[in-house]
Amino acid sequence: MTEVFFRFPVHCPICNQEWSSSRTKSEIVDALDNNKPLRVYAECHDWHWDLSATERSDLSLRIRPAA
Ligand SMILES: [Zn+2]
Fold it and tell me: How many domains in the chain?
């Protein structure tokens, strides 16, 4: 089975620097549809967090552009 990786930008909550995160497409869709947390990481502050509602809806639009 081929896993399709999807890269998306995340911003450090502390300094707003942009990093990119990647997950398999199926993992992202599953998390968005089933209200599961999506954990991301910013190297600049060695910071892990779960995507906020706003970040989730941005990601949702990226991965599933409105038809
Ligand atoms: Zn930072």
Answer: 1
